[in-house]
Amino acid sequence: MRILSEGERLIDKRKLTRKIIISVVILILLFLTIRSSLAIPVRMELAPPSIDVVLYVNKTHYVPVTIRNPSNETVYNIKFTNVSSYVLVPDPWQFLNPNESVTLNFRFFSANEMGETGFVTVLSFDYLLNISQQPITYPVYLDSSGFSITNLTVLEGDSVEFINNDSNYHTLTELPILPGSIDRNLSNQGDDYTLRPDKNYEFFDRNTGVLFHLYVVERDPSSFVHSSSLDSAMDIRMRSILSPVSLDLELITPTHTIAYNESGQGVVKLYNPSNATAYNVSLQADWIVFLEKWFDIPSKGLKVITYNITPKDINDTSQTNRSYFLPISAKGLNLEGLSYTNNTIEVYIPYANLSVLSTDKFIIYRTILSINETLTLCGVDPEYPGCDALIKEVEKIVIKVVEQNATVSVEDFKRITDKVEDMSNILERRENLQTQL
């Protein structure tokens, strides 16, 4: 065996090193090629990861949601599925390049009050995979709301079939409108038109005014693939409440003068300056009965309400000849506040001498006994003019004071006592006259 010289051994070593380097490069290139053809993205990132929203009835609420593609591969046809009728999700997004983000708005709306409800929406996407796949035909339907989807990405060689799914006519009009551009009438339900696109298109439906965007991606020969294991779930919880409103109160008759045993009447106005209806509104105040309760006031609406006012618990002279202040308050299903320059009704009670009818039952009883003793004089001549009416009137006051334990007006009491005194004097003079005879 020939022994290699030092120079020959050095040359062989260099050759071996070169071979190793070339092999490593080939392996790296092969790995990158395989990775490029078989690469699978990772799950998309969502921010926020969940949504918890409170809606106002008949008010639109938007929640921005950011989608980020953290992978090194471009993803396509990014869309949300399995949504509630209360939520309008964005149209499918055409594509997201590696490490790119997009922010889309979720639209929430409810026409009625609703307790908490929840659902899970799913974010899915397609990605390109280098596998053999036959061309696909994608159906797109037209109805009263326009196109069933408004964005679609397909591969070269795929087809799109536009189908009229409505009883009304629709059109497939290419934009911009130029000589030779597509302008197809789908007049009847079931009419269809199939297009194998070789470029990007923008179509316009003359019936609904809705636009449709069609994007074509080169077939390399990778094909779109969807993997449910890469879908992202978003938990959405929502409830709707009535929009809070504040009403403006105006007192048309802010002051009253009412005797302690009488009633008065007044008017107030309520105006709703908000953009929502005030529901089941009711007013309250001491001494006051509002003649209409539990009413609604629409946005920018005006309500005029009449009320009766009756003083209560005025039993003493010291409670008269003074003013009472009665604040008005309001409540309602969605009433947040009551705005006013003045919400207090002033009631002046004129002077009345109520001390004659003291709450001391002994004084009342003694006064009535005096009246009864005087009335016995009518027994001398029951046919004497005025006796019958006097007896009935005195009986009325006796029943009112003693049996019902009620307060008698000073005017009524004075009128009775005056009549009794007049009758007593007449009967006494008549009795003296009969004695002299």
Structure notes:
There is one protein chain. This protein is of the alpha+beta class. The chain has four domains: 31-127 and 233-241, Sandwich (Immunoglobulin-like); 133-220, Immunoglobulin-like (Sandwich), CATH 2.60.40; 245-349, Sandwich (Immunoglobulin-like); 361-436. The chain contains four helices and 30 strands. The chain has helices at 6-38, 361-375, 387-403, 410-436, and strands at residues 45-47, 50-56, 61-68, 75-81, 87-88, 93-96, 101-108, 114-129, 137-143, 146-147, 151-155, 159-164, 170-174, 183-186, 192-195, 201-204, 211-217, 223-225, 232-241, 245-251, 255-257, 264-271, 278-284, 288-290, 295-297, 302-309, 322-327, 329-331, 335-340, 344-349. The strands form seven sheets. Strands 2, 4, 6, 8, 18 and 19 form a six-stranded mixed sheet that branches. A five-stranded mixed sheet has the order 11-17-16-13-14, with no helix packed on it. A hairpin with a 2-residue loop joins strand 9 (137-143) and strand 10. Helix 2 (361-375) packs antiparallel against helix 3 and helix 3 packs across helix 4. The longest helix has 33 residues, at 6-38. The chain is rod-shaped. The protein starts with 5 loop residues before the first helix and ends with a helix. Residues 30-38 and 356-361 have low confidence and may be disordered.
